[in-house]
Amino acid sequence: MKYILTTLLFFLSFIMTAQDLQVFSTAGDCTENSTVGTLSWTLGEVITETFDNENSTLTSGYQQSRLTTDCLEDFMVMHNVLCLDTTYQILIAFDSEGVGENGYNILDNINGTQYDNITANSLNLGPFEFNTGYSYTVSIADNPACSETFGTAIVSCTATAIELVSFDGNTQKRANQLTWKTASEYNSDYFIVESSIDGIHFQEVGKITAQSNSSTTQEYEHLDYDHQNKSLYYRLKETDKEGFTQVVSKVIFLERDVHTTPFEILAVFPIPARETLSVQYHIEKATNIQASIYDVTGKLIEQKMMDTHIGFNQLDWSLASYNAGTYFIQLTNNEEVVLSKFIKTQ
């Protein structure tokens, strides 16, 4: 049995050179006067490549999931997860040279807590319970555009029942193929494959019986036919014989050709929705669209007019005043009408 500290990140270094505004994201997308490059990685995995587009350089260290950098000057933030007996803490360290007398601002993206004008070289946050996640945005107080956002869905400091060798996927004509290997298993019961539209909200798409006890390599496969021709994120969970479940893999992304029609809804999430509904859609020409929400009786609840741009668009709709129930969201561009169902929960 291998002991895995899922989120201990010993060292992270980003060096941003201030010429033009550069954006580097985990999707491998560099925009605003940048060339396009792609890197993929596992949470806690040692960087084996260096991305350099003459303006931004990602150098050696440990990588983090869903890290975005938007910076106009030299900027460095490092963080470690410190495991205690039953809780964990997050240590955030800064390179404070040249950032100004007002220091840093830190935003907790989960609960909205703001820590302003941190002038010390480090900040210790917590304690937090195991199997919870975190997300923080650190920005320079005098230059909020210079920021880094980091986080992870689950922190687990416990032992896993398996030693995972790999978790991979590829797109086939009718299905997304997910494969994984274990080097050893102890008291393992079953695996759960989960998918997500946004890489944050996951749902189960497959359950596969584990080997239980093994000291040799075991190989597994799951075919996801319910991809609905969408590009999706996937991750793997494992449940042991005691009923303990945890995420054991990195998050991978499988991209399909989703732009099949001139005007279509690509995704509606989260399902069920509570406060906000996000609708991703594709349109081939920029125009005004009308968005409408109806209840199951066909009654119009709310309607909006919105501008669009060619290609991918996202609409975020507040549901705070809605009653729990089933609704339909309809988009029309005066030529076509697209419709999708969603559920509102309290």
Q: Whole-number average pLDDT?
A: 76
From the spread of the alpha carbons, the general shape counts as: globular
Number of strands: 28
The fraction of residues in strands falls at over 45%
**Number of helix segments?**
0
What Rg is obtained from the alpha carbons, in whole angstroms?
Answer: 22 Å
**Sheet with most strands: strand arrangement:** 3-2-6-13-12-9-10
Structural class: mainly beta
- Count up the domains: 3
Terminal-residue CA separation: 41 Å
Overview of the structural elements:
The structure is a single chain. The chain has 346 residues and is mainly beta. The protein folds into three domains: 14-152, no CATH class; 162-254, Immunoglobulins (Immunoglobulin-like, Sandwich); 263-344, Immunoglobulin-like, CATH 2.60.40. 0% of the residues lie in helices and 52% in strands. It is built from no helices and 28 strands. The strands form seven sheets. The chain has a seven-stranded antiparallel sheet, with no helix packed on it. Strands 16, 17, 19, 20 and 21 form a five-stranded antiparallel sheet that branches. It has a four-stranded antiparallel sheet with strand order 25-24-27-28, with no helix packed on it. Strand 2 (22-24) and strand 3 (30-31) form a beta hairpin. The chain is globular. The chain starts with 13 loop residues before the first strand and ends with a strand.
